[in-house]
Amino acid sequence: MTKRLYKKSDSAFICGVCSGLADYLDTDVSLIRLGAAILALGSLGSMALIYLLAATILPDKNEL
């Protein structure tokens, strides 16, 4: 079975991108959220733009 990257809106904090990424990487969602927050602050907002782009493009797990 192949792994797919998706959003998980049932365990979402904002849009579910970090939750879906944590499920895809089989790691704790808190680590992914912490890394995303650090990158968003350190990248002067470009990480936030990437997050919004991923929230728009990725399908929701419930829609699959």
Describe this structure in words.
- This protein starts with 16 loop residues before the first helix and ends in a 7-residue tail after the last helix.
- The model has no long low-confidence stretch (mean pLDDT 87).
- It is globular, with a radius of gyration of 12 Å.
- It has 64 residues and is mostly helical.
- Helix 1 packs across helix 2.
- It contains 3 helices and no strands.
Distance between the termini: 15 Å
Question: Globular, elongated, flat, extended or rod-shaped: what is the shape?
Answer: globular
Helix count, per DSSP?
3
Which band does the percent of strand residues land in? under 5%
Low-confidence stretches: none
The major sheet is characterized as: none
Radius of gyration: 12 Å
Q: What is the averaged pLDDT score?
A: 87
Order of helices and strands: HHH
The secondary structure category is mainly alpha
Q: How many DSSP-defined strands?
A: 0
Describe the oligomeric state of these chains in a short phrase.
single chain
Q: Helical amount among residues, as a percent range?
A: 40-55%
